[in-house]
Each structure stands twice: as C-alpha cells, then as structure tokens.
Amino acid sequence: MKIAVLSDIHSNLSALQQGLTYLNDKGIDEYIFLGDYITDGYQDNEVIEVVRNVSTHAISGNRDRIESTNFPNPLPINLMPQAWTLKHLSKNSSEYLQTLPTHKLLEYEGVRFLFIHGDNPQIRKPIEDTFDELIEMENFDVCIMGHIHRHFDQSYKGRRFINASSLGLPADGPDYKLLIININKAVDVEVVSLPIMNTFDLQCREYQNSSYFENHKEWGTLVLDSIAYGISAQDTFFKIVKKLLEDNRDACIDEVWYEAFNIYINTNPSTYSRLESGFKE
C-alpha cells in the first residue's frame, strides 16, 4: 500500500500541480489531503476542484472553515484577505468544504492511522501536550497532521507523530513538501521535497497580476516571501505588529498594519518579492 499525503496548499495551484505531476508515476494507491486548501492566494476554486477530483480522503483545515468566521463590521485590514477569499468562493467550492470532516481514522495493513489537520487540538509547545490530547481523543498507531508548515517525525508513548509540512506554503526551507507512505508490515515515510524556484518566477508574476494581490499587496508580499524562502514571513511581520501595539495600545490596527509593513520591507531588503513588486524604501 502506497499513500500520498498533501497538506496546506493555501491556494497555490502551481505547487499542487507540481506535486501531483511528481506523484503521477509513483504507483500511489490513495491520496489523502490534510486541509487548508484556500486563502493566501487567488486560485482557491481551482485548488478545491483538483482536491475534489484527486483525493481518496480529504479533511478540513482551519482556513477551510471560513464560512464560520465572524467578520466584524467595519472590517479591519488584517481580516480583509480572508474576507476576499470568502467572497470569491464559488457555491460548489463552499458546499464541498462544508462536507469535509475534521479528521479521519483509517486502518491499513493492520496499522491505525489518524489523519488530522493540527488545529484542534492546536499544535503548541510543549508539543507533548498536543500528543497527549490526541492520544486521549482517538486510538491510533500513527498520527499524521499539517497546520504548522514544518515537518517532524517523533515517537511518543508508543505512537508515531508525523507532520507533512506544506505543499503550498512551507516554513521549513525553500522546497514544497509532501509525504509518500509505504505500508508493508512496517511504515516507511518518505518526505518528498520539490524545488520552489522551478516554477516561482512565473508564479510570482501571475500572482502579482491577480486581483487578490492588487487588493492585498502587503499580505500578498508576505505570502510570496514565505514561498520564495521557505520561511514564515507572516510570523516575522506579526512580531513587528505586536511590538507596535505594545508601544501604542491606542493605535488603530489599520495604521499599525501599514507601519509594520514598511518596517518589514526596510529590514528585509533582499527579499525576492519586494524587488519584484517594486516596493521602494
């Protein structure tokens, strides 16, 4: 039995296509998707259509439950990218996302697998606390998750916990990642790394010409930086936001957002997307 596991695509259609092309001749028996198919880009509906057609099993991630988000009015700038995604989801995409379970318990060759996104329970530090919650939640031998966009493979209390990283927005190096699980008495997990830069130049240009980027240049730039360098540019950005809010607790989030972005691009002068976007100091 050979299973492909793909997680956290985040509207990155070219990464999804690259991953599926790689897997095409690998004798895959089942395709399992771990959620977060949408947001952060402009090809949400296209990604969902591929997942719907290819997946043997698919579960929902926190981003896929966007219908349940309580957007305030007026809408603050930090929520505008997600609101854009919700507005542009097709009816078919929305209905499909609402059918997805939050986890799947499946058995292959006598091995019990728990497939879950990783947001409920939330992956946190110390990670053993999360593992204990999962053990309490379900009876399994191997748990495979995503959500944090970083790969790990750990044994704990007789179970094995594996993170699939991210196919669309990795934060553990400049490669798209997916898993191939071979099950033949033992469980062998191959982490497949696919070079981002093979497709990134064209992807970047097309992304910057999209209405998503036109309406959300700041967030879009962070997304492109994250893809290009395999880091979480969003984490760096939000640390700046947090510091500015601590320094001025009366500040408006919209003002802080723009100020934080200006600090970000001036302290990260060599980022690929900043140069491509034409942002000036």
TrEMBL record:
Family note = Belongs to the metallophosphoesterase superfamily. YfcE family.
Coiled-coil positions: none
> What is an example of a GO molecular function annotated in this UniProt entry?
phosphatase activity
Superkingdom is Bacteria
Ranges for domain Calcineurin-like phosphoesterase come to 1-184
Which named protein is this? Metallophosphoesterase family protein
Against Pfam families, the record matches this protein to:
Metallophos_2
InterPro entries, per the entry? Ap4A_hydrolase (IPR050126), Calcineurin-like_PHP_lpxH (IPR024654), Metallo-depent_PP-like (IPR029052)
Q: Which PANTHER family match?
A: BLL5683 PROTEIN, METALLOPHOSPHOESTERASE
Example of a GO cellular component annotation carried by this entry: cytoplasm
